[in-house]
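wait is this the right file?? whatever heres the structure
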């Protein structure tokens, strides 16, 4: 593809985003930045959340991963449904009853200062790492497609990518993002739909033939019955459920959008429709994955022999398959040509920036509310602190991406969920302990326990094959980590005193 064409596409795309930002950030306040003045329409929030939830990892890693793991990821997605039910019936009512801006303020009301700060800290670490990995993906695609040919180093590509996000989010925050993410979700869904359509056309597949081809492929296997296999269906299902609870329900990023709805009923309606759509969208990505490899086989493309697709150890890097085919092979499609490359680039930009801009805003919100206590200042000072914090997190993401570039040797979808398993485990344990027990941990010991839990989990996972008869951990690392940390909190807890219960009820009543 021509670098000029791609640069023109990127410039036009961001011109639209910046235009939206200018229109939506007028007279923006801290409340606009944090919760969009709590008057966002539920259907807009539901649609915007699709792009935020998926990210560029879904766009590239999920289709690529079907080669080795089939449709086992669908078990994770079905687990999402159960997780969303928990969020809609337990967590959302709690957050709306307390009228929270940062969801981690719940931990202060339930336990105390150290639990609150520990929860917020683990969110910051989790979201910064996850967002850094997602941005690494799109920056790598842009580097190969454009900037490498122009002699631009990777760190400059990353800096430009993050700088553009900062440019259209630093003023309006969530108020702007609800509009930009709606646009970006629409662009992403259009691109994946067109990709499936044009690949099917090249393979001479009508709708019925397409369905039959996907169902008949070995790569469409969903149910894996071997318990020790990291693709075991019920293990994946349970992992998906708890991944959703922590990476959506206990994550400031996704909950910040939900808290922008006018009331609890609208937030729950948003979650219901979002759940239905997200399952369908993930099935589209899995379908696309089967088609990618079917196309390569039909055209005699030996993916494992293409140097650009191999890792340092010589193994096929499935994260590179879709980008390579889209920018090298699909551009030969009759009647479409370079348009297929444009569709891919637009799709990956849309889905990645829809996730990254929201994450950057959530990081800024949590740090400002949970650590700077920004509400105590006048609006002018709040604005200055908010914008400096926004800039600081932008630089932090730059550093994380450059570090990951030096050490990455696995599929990004695996890297993100495994990282989440270690960093979100303490959050899962803290909220479960608060909601399902009446005990209170000794506050000064909460942070040490939440650090020891992931470290002990890492030790078990590293030796699971030899210690547990060949068992391999997959995404259920999160469950193990949460259970270990929960046990640690139980060991340092004491029965809730009457005084503590009165204080907690008083705080809750005051918040309502």
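ok assuming it is, sequence goes like this
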């Amino acid at each position: 593809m021509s670098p000029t064409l791609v640069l023109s596409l990127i410039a036009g795309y961001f011109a639209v985003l910046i235009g939206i930002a200018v229109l939506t950030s007028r007279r923006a306040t801290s409340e606009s930045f944090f919760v969009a003045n709590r008057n966002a329409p539920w259907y807009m929030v539901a649609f915007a959340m699709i792009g935020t939830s998926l990210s560029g990892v879904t766009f590239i890693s999920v289709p690529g991963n079907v080669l080795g793991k089939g449709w086992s990821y669908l078990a994770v997605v079905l687990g999402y449904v159960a997780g969303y039910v928990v969020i809609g019936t337990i967590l959302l009512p709690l957050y709306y009853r307390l009228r929270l801006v940062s969801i981690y303020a719940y931990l202060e009301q339930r336990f105390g200062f150290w639990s609150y700060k520990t929860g917020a800290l683990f969110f910051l670490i989790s979201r910064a790492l996850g967002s850094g990995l997602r941005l690494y993906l799109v920056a790598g695609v842009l580097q190969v497609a454009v900037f490498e040919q122009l002699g631009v180093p990777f760190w400059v590509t990353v800096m430009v990518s993050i700088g553009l996000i900062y440019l259209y989010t630093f003023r309006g925050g969530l108020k702007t993002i609800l509009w930009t993410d709606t646009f970006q979700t629409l662009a992403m869904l259009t691109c994946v739909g067109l990709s499936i359509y044009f690949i099917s056309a090249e393979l001479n597949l009508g709708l019925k033939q397409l369905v039959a081809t996907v169902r008949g492929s070995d790569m469409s296997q969903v149910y894996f019955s071997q318990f020790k296999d990291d693709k075991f269906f019920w293990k994946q299902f349970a992992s998906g459920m708890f991944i959703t609870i922590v990476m959506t329900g206990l994550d400031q990023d996704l909950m910040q959008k939900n808290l922008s709805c006018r009331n609890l009923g609208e937030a729950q309606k948003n979650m219901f429709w979002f759940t239905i759509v997200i399952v369908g969208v993930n099935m589209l990505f899995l379908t696309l994955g089967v088609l990618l490899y079917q196309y390569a086989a039909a055209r005699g493309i030996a993916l494992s022999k293409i140097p650009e697709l191999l890792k340092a150890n010589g193994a096929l890097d499935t994260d590179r398959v879709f980008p390579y085919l889209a920018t090298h092979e699909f551009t030969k499609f009759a009647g479409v040509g370079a348009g297929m490359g444009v569709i891919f680039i637009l799709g990956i930009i849309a889905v990645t920036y829809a996730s990254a801009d929201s994450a950057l805003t959530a990081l800024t919100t949590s740090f400002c509310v949970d650590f700077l206590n920004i509400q105590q200042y006048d609006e002018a000072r709040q604005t200055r602190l908010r914008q400096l914090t926004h800039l600081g997190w932008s630089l932090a993401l730059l550093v994380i991406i450059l570090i990951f570039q030096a050490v990455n040797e696995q599929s990004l979808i695996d890297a993100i969920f495994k990282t989440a398993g270690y960093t979100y485990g303490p959050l899962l344990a803290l909220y479960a302990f608060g909601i399902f027990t009446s005990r209170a941990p000794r506050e000064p010991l909460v942070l040490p326990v939440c650090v020891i839990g992931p470290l002990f989990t890492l030790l078990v996972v590293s030796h699971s094959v030899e210690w547990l008869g060949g068992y391999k951990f997959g995404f259920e690392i999160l469950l193990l980590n949460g259970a270990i940390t929960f046990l640690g909190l139980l060991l340092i807890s004491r029965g809730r005193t009457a005084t503590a219960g009165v204080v907690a009820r008083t705080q809750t009543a005051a918040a309502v």
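Strands lie at 439-441, 493-495. so i think its the right one actually
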